[in-house]
Amino acid sequence: GVTGISGGGATTWWAAAADERVRAAAPVCGTATLGSQIEDVTIDGHCDCMWWNNTYGWDLADVGALIAPRPLLIASANHDPLFTIAAIREVHAQLRSLYEKLGAAENLRLVETPGGHGYQPASRTAIFSWFLKHLAGKEIPPEEVGDIDERPEKQESEDTLRVFVNGPLPEDRTPTI
User: Fold this and answer.
1) What is the tens place of the pLDDT at every residue in 80-116?
2) What does the alpha-carbon distance between residue 131 and residue 134 come to, in Å, rounded to a whole number?
3) What 3-state class would DSSP assign to 107?
4) Which uninterrupted H or E stretch holds 110?
5) Helical (H) or strand (E) element with 92
6) Do the Cβ atoms of 29 and 78 come closer than 8 Å?
7) Order of strands, sheet of 72-77, starting from the edge strand that comes earlier in the sequence
């Protein structure tokens, strides 16, 4: 599964669309329409990571179609100045139609939380619940999952978070691309 916020939300869309190994995705505060970027002038607040080179004029629902019918939870705050809730609802509605046609309506969800640009407790617990369901086969409602425990003794160390403990993979092409 993959989740991220803002630029990480955009990266969540790209990674899930490009890599079928992503079994469930949850972009947060990284969902918009091409129209909202221009008409609402929200693009002025973004870095260039938020929108792709878009020769064909695709919208984000087109990218979402590459994810379907895999589980996709779109989470966004309702007062985010960078991603209007109207645009987020529009992307969700467009994808809902596709997911329904694919017989996978239960694999698409929109979570709106109060507040500004950021993860909220309600979005985090919804994502944890979503991932438990779609990645571990466990049905645990968001209100029972619990939120992040920020006590210092509960934090992961740099060593436990490291992915490549012996350095990059030998087949890593990124330094030469």
Assistant:
1) 877 788 888 999 999 999 999 999 999 999 999 988 7
2) 5
3) helix
4) strand 108-113
5) helix 85-101
6) no
7) 2-5, 25-28, 72-77, 108-113
Q: What residues contact residue 75 under an 8 Å CB cut-off, 6+ apart?
A: 26, 27, 28, 29, 110, 111, 112, 113, 123, 126, 127
> By the 8 A CB rule, do 28 and 4 touch?
yes
22 near 70, Cβ under 8 Å?
A: yes
User: Mutual orientation of helices 85-101 and 60-67 as an angle, nearest 10°?
Assistant: 40
**Residue type at 80 in one-letter notation:** D
For 44, the token pair is 């002025």
- Rounded percentage of the chain residues whose pLDDT exceeds 90: 50
Structure tokens at 150: 């920020």
- The tens digit of pLDDT for each residue in 40-72 reads 665 655 565 666 667 777 788 999 999 999 999
